[in-house]
Give the backbone structure.
Amino acid sequence: MEIDEARSLSRALQRLLNDAHSLIDESRPVPELVARVTGHLGRETKDLVCVSQNFRSWEHASLQRGVDAYLAARGEATWFGVSGQVEVFSEDPLPE
């Protein structure tokens, strides 16, 4: 096989794999969480910025009360999302 034939074959195989990848991606259903977030915000997930905040464990109850009050003040609202990783730790180091 000549080098030009090999290059041509390589490009054809690459196009075939790219086309197959696109077809597979297009046939997958959109995950429910992605559909809800993009539907609510009106933007694709690739256009969003991820923001996170850490709270000490004893602040979680106050945070939940704040979220509940915020949603109650706006009438009918649905809270959805994903739960975070559970971390078990102590604020104070263990004695040596």
